[in-house]
Amino acid sequence: MLRVTVEPTGQDFWKLDPVVDLINSGAVGVIPTDTVYDISMLSLHFSFVLVSHISVEQPDSVSRDCEPLSILCRSLRDIDTYTTGFPLGTNQGQANIFRAVKRILPGPYTFILPATKELPKQCIKHGSSTRYAKRRQVGVRMPDDPICQAILQNLEEPLICTSVKYLSEDEWILDPVYIADIYEPLGLDFIVDGGARIADPSTVVDMTGSYPTIISSGKGSKA
Fold first, then answer.
1. CA nearest 30: which of 198, 199, 182?
2. For 214, which of 21, 140, 160, 204 is 20 to 30 Å away at the CA?
3. Residue 30, exposed/middle/buried by CB under 10 A (0-12, 13-18, 19+)?
4. DSSP H or E stretch at residue 205
5. Whole-number Å distance between alpha carbons of 18 and 112
């Protein structure tokens, strides 16, 4: 497994070149975001490999096979490609959500939006649980993290991801050293060490209804 340690200042982002090469070849790895660490891979190469990385050896009480996936996007254009996008507002008084979102992205938010056909079906329908089996929605993110952005901007498409948690409990792993120790034996291809994170997830906003609804408060709510 490749381990790369980089500084968020950007002075050694050249170290990310082999990581980008691995991702483009279909590798599964861990990268930092502006909240916690994510397991990620390209949507083009997506398969149940990514889900298997986070669902093996789970006790029945902490099953993760229905763990939702999100897209780490490079720009608002990616969001428009893989989802129906944000409402632009109307002359009848409907709010221009797109304009409001532009003011807070990049940032620690996950927006749930209707998915388009551009998104691989496995990213919407996966796991044995019926909770997500018929979902036609997906979470989208544009993290405000220089390391994550440096990786994304050198890829040809966004990343499919899910947060890194302990195998036996529903809790984030915040130290990349522990992540490597736990996930390397499971076949992880690389990890980008950007320093320890704090347990402060993204704010999740459901944009599929008539009005935006915060379904999970997080770092974005405190911004």
1. 182
2. 160
3. buried
4. strand 203-206
5. 32
How far is the C-alpha of 124 from the C-alpha of 138, rounded, in Å? 7
User: Comparing C-alpha atoms, which of 11, 14, 5 is closest to residue 190?
Assistant: 5
Q: Which of left, alpha, beta for 16 (phi over 0: left; psi -120 to 50: alpha)?
A: alpha
Query: What's the pTM value of the predicted model, to 2 decimals?
Result: 0.84
b/e 68-104 (16+ beta carbons within 10 angstroms → b) = bbbbbbbebebbbbbbebbbeeeeeeeeebeeebeee
Cα–chain center distance at 213:
20
- Residue-level pLDDT, tens digit, the chain, 223 residues: 999 999 988 889 999 999 999 999 989 999 999 999 999 998 766 655 555 544 444 334 333 444 568 899 999 999 999 999 987 765 555 667 888 899 999 999 999 999 998 876 656 654 444 444 455 889 999 999 999 999 999 998 999 998 999 988 889 999 999 999 999 998 899 999 999 999 999 999 999 888 889 999 999 866 5
